[in-house]
Specification:
The chain is an alpha/beta fold. The chain contains 9 helices and 9 strands.
């Protein structure tokens, strides 16, 4: 499968790239961003090491939130400098298919375009293209491992809000693929909040028994765990308006992990809201968290 390079930019000794490719899973072109650290970039020419190079680096997949694109995290997250320090790649997919032109897909900011919720839709017409879960797990991870100098045995996953939900779900359901997990202000119990109920009803249908597969709290209750029980890190701003109105509910996930014995740290940060000023303030801690665990993977 061919990846089309859209643009690249030198950053912190590494290279920030943006790609497009034809997705077999989605049935449409998809875009994603990649930061490659200095250890796989020639400092003089900017040439990137081949996919079969001797040196391959661990990679963190970042899932963004509602309305975001593959450009949001690399331009607002302030993460490249910390990834460069640890020798990690950063990969950020788009948040939904684009160009499907389904009826009503752009009518709301929290459903349709920019709001794929990292699941595989089962209700028509969404089921034809809205398959972000399988796109990331089966296609994007394999694509970057085959064509970039990243180590497919050392992937971690993190994200924000809707993407924090996605990171928890994908990490818990695929611990052999994603060895580390963290999240910023995740939608931690989507079956119990308005955002999740709207998305799940639209994409999965009214049968709530099908929703649990995409609800991190329910997954913990069902016995899902992080890889080898490694700790999960969550940061939550206490001035986050979506915390106050019940969209995030980290306390439900925290209670489920406590009962299940899943190692979890939830840090509640006074004065911080839901946006990227919050994320960029604590991004170094999250990359440190992943780096320390991934370096222990043999």
């Amino acid at each position: 499968m061919t990846m089309k390079l859209i643009s690249e930019h030198r950053a912190f000794g590494g290279i920030q790239r943006f790609y497009e490719h034809s997705s077999e899973t989605i049935g449409l072109p998809m875009r994603f961003s990649v930061f490659l650290p200095p250890s796989v970039v020639d400092r003089h020419t900017g040439a990137v090491a081949a996919a079969d190079a001797t040196v391959k680096v661990p990679a963190l997949f970042y899932l963004a939130g509602l309305t975001c694109t593959e450009e949001t995290f690399p331009t607002k997250g302030a993460a490249q400098q910390h990834a460069a320090r640890h020798g990690l790649a950063l990969i950020a997919p788009d948040t939904s298919p684009r160009g499907a032109n389904l009826p009503g897909d752009s009518d709301a900011w929290d459903f349709g375009v920019g709001a794929g919720f990292y699941l595989d839709a089962t209700v028509a017409p969404w089921s034809a293209h809205y398959r972000m879960y399988s796109y990331i797990v089966d296609e994007l991870t394999a694509l970057v491992a085959a064509q970039l100098p990243v180590d497919g045995a050392r992937f971690g996953i993190f994200g924000h809000s809707m993407g924090g939900h996605g990171a928890l779900v994908l990490g818990l359901r695929h611990p052999a693929l994603f060895r580390t997990i963290s999240a910023f202000a995740p939608i931690a119990s989507p079956s119990q909040c308005a955002w999740g109920q709207k998305a799940f009803t639209g994409y999965l249908g009214a049968d709530r028994s099908t929703w649990a597969a995409y609800d991190a709290t329910a997954l913990i209750e069902q016995g899902k765990r992080s890889a080898n029980g490694t700790p999960i890190l969550i940061d939550q701003g206490l001035a986050d308006k979506f915390l106050a109105d019940g969209q995030l509910q980290p306390e439900r996930f925290e209670a489920a992990c406590r009962l299940a014995g899943q190692a979890l740290t939830v840090r509640r940060q006074p004065g911080y809201d839901h946006g990227y000023y919050f994320i960029s303030s604590y991004i170094a801690d999250h990359i440190d968290h992943h780096a320390a665990l991934l370096k222990a993977v043999i």
